[in-house]
Amino acid sequence: MANNIHSSSASTVEQDPSAKKPGGWRAIKYILGNETFEKLASMSLISNITVYLQTNYNLGGVLLVNIVTIWSGSSNITSLLGAFVSDAYLGRFRTLLVGSIASLLGMLIMTLTAGIHQLRPSSCSDPPNCPQPQGWQFCVLFAALTLLSIGAGGIRPCNIAFGADQFDTTTEKGRAQLESFFNWWYFSFTVALVVVLTGVVYIQTNVSWVLGFAIPTACLAFSITLFLLGRRCYIYIKPAGSVFSDMAKVVVAACRKRCFSVEPGCEHNYYDPPLMIKLKRTNRFKCLDRAALITEPSHELQEQGTPKNGWRLCSLQQVEQLKCLIAILPVCVSGIACFISMDQQNTFGILQAIQMNKSVGPHFKMPPAWMNITSMLALSLWILIYERLYIPVATKIAGKVKRLTLQQRIKTGIVMSILCMLVAGSVEKRRRELALKHDSFVSPMSLLILLPQYALSGLTEAFAAVAIMEFFTNQMPESMRTVAGAAFFLSLSVASYVSSLVINIIHRVTKRTGNSPWLGGHDLNKNRLDYYYYIIAGLGAVNFVYFSFFASHFVVNTTVAETG
To answer: Residue ranges under compositional bias (Polar residues) (predicted)?
Structure first.
């Protein structure tokens, strides 16, 4: 568990001399504006890619779900590469800019796939015997998705960290502003997405995929322009080298000295060079302290007192950085289990909506991807209630600032994820029964019945995802905030990969042991998706026990930073 340490970043901040008062909410408005329009571009694709690949590429079943989940996972795992490049070479501002440009190129290619019919297979006239994409057509599609993943890798770990850089966490006011920033960061772009995505998704589904992709492409170009307009308002943190290589060195050095004791009572001589900013030493994970243990000064240190081999002797600062990362892993595991349920709504949830009655009134048919708006509305509504109603009322009653603890919010999020899967399973069971009863591919049940499971998915994100992101950022020093962002999106990535793995295992096992597989194929009526949802709910219940009795002990509400 992390200790409460005071922070100072003055020596690492490079400010534009022409800017009078960089940072603060003055800079945040540009960062949030960039994030809003970038999310508009990416989410307009994420929300509707399942429909696009099914209707334009004739994909379905496990292949479709695997493409979407693996792409989603890859978009998150590239955050590690983005964090490394940001910390070691480019800094957060330049990494954000490069990522935005890569995303723009990816969206341009996706627009071309919609506009040039030769880039896609011919239309399907005889389901389920539809023509499949050729190899080179897959290559064009994957090139676009790859560029979008690279762009996400530059944007996702840096946007939150770059925003957090704009506040002075040495003051109570700065820490309060930072906490509100996490909520408003989610709230601002979510509201914009709810307003705009209704139109964009409708255009994609009912008017034109070309126009539907061109609009978010233009929004992405505008977000880059907006981001550059605020360049004189930002606080810039110089890249100080990546901590990832330092962490690897600590592990190797500690393993080399595994025979040496670091128990209390033994005399130790550690390599601890004077630094202007350093982490306070902790007593957790003592075995890693061996990496900084000087056992043979003549062989390990040069005349200037620096290590001869960084893979044999590390500083206590490097050791503490690795400890910070290890300390968040138990919560990271719990987050992964929680995020798996959120993943289902962009794939199987949309497939459910496709096979339901989409009529709302006599003349309007709702696009399946609009169901995602319910999640965003639920998230935004809770954040608005929490920030504008709960906190002021609770503070007035308690006589001091009163917020829900991180443990309370994460536990609530896990409960919401379980309820989401239970509701989804019940709805799917009824949807399938009605479809089979009427011998119809499309169930007569209205897709509006899906609203509760999407709302619960949004509340899962509002409680668990926001709290976990806040915890990761607070438990890392300022020099490692990009790593915190990468760790958060890595959790989302692993959740996507685990979800894909579970889907493939269930598909293969049930295909061998049953009359028909629970998952797979173009027709959900021939599957048992409800059983799959119940399995994910069971994993959520296990996660609740795991977090309550183990991972929650690693969650603290204090901020880890550096001492000068």
So the answer is: 1-15
What is residue 233's predicted lDDT score, i.e. its pLDDT? 83
Condensed to tens digits (0 to 9), the pLDDT of residues 307-361 reads 888 888 988 888 888 888 888 889 999 999 999 998 888 888 888 998 899 888 8
What is the rounded end-to-end Cα distance, in angstroms, of the chain?
21
User: What is the model's pLDDT at position 169?
Assistant: 65
Answer yes or no: do 217 and 249 share one domain.
Answer: no
Does 121 lie in the same domain as 52? yes
Best CA proximity match to 169, nearest among 279, 28, 24: 24
Q: Which long-range contacts (CB under 8 A, 24 or more apart) does 446-451 make?
A: 446/356, 446/357, 446/359, 446/360, 447/352, 447/353, 447/356, 447/357, 447/358, 447/366, 447/368, 447/371, 448/360, 448/366, 449/356, 450/349, 450/352, 450/353, 450/356, 450/371, 450/374, 451/371, 451/374
Residue 443, strand partner residues: 356
What residues of the chain score a pLDDT lower than 50?
1-19
| Tens-digit pLDDT profile for residues 292-306 | 888 888 888 888 888
Sign for the pseudo-dihedral over CA of 421, 427, 433, 436: negative
Which amino acid is it at 502? V
Assess whether 410 and 538 both reside in one domain: yes
Sign of CA dihedral 393, 394, 400, 402: negative
CATH of residue 123's domain is: 1.20.1250.20
Peptide bond into 273 cis (omega under 30): no
Q: Tell me, what's the pLDDT at 2?
A: 36
According to the model, what pLDDT value does residue 432 have? 92
The Cα 326–Cα 305 span in angstroms is 29
Residue 438, Cβ density class (10 Å: 0-12 exposed, 13-18 middle, ≥19 buried) = exposed
User: Residues 32, 156: one domain?
Assistant: yes
Angle at 530 between CA 529 and CA 535, to 5 degrees: 95
pLDDT of residue 16: 45
- Domain boundary among the residues 314, 337, 352 is at 314
What tokens appear for 116 in the block?
Answer: 């040039």
175 and 280 co-located in one domain: no
Cα within 13 Å of Cα(432), Cβ side: 17
In a domain, 36, yes or no: yes
Distance CA 341, CA 353 (A): 17
Q: Identify the pLDDT of residue 58.
A: 82
Q: What integer pLDDT is reported at residue 20 of this predicted model? A: 60
Residue 514 pLDDT: 65
> Residues 400, 535: one domain?
yes
pLDDT computed for residue 482 by the predictor: 67
| Domain enclosing residue 449, as ranges | 328-560
Strands, DSSP E only, in 342-390? 356-357
> CA-based Rg of the chain, rounded to a whole angstrom?
25
Tell me the DSSP string of 208-248: -HHHHHHHHHHHHHHHHHHHHHTTTT-EEEPP---HHHHHH
With vertex at residue 84, the alpha carbon angle to CA 83 and CA 89, rounded to the nearest 5 degrees, is: 110
CB 15 within 8 A of CB 147: no
Which residues, in sequence order, are CB contacts of 207 under 8 Å at separation 6+? none
Which candidate, 147, 127, 155, 128, places its Cα nearest to that of 40? 155
**CA–CA distance, 63 with 319 (Å, rounded to integer):** 43
Please check whether residues 309 and 357 belong to one and the same domain. no
* Residue 320 within any structural domain of the chain: no
Same domain, 439 and 543: yes
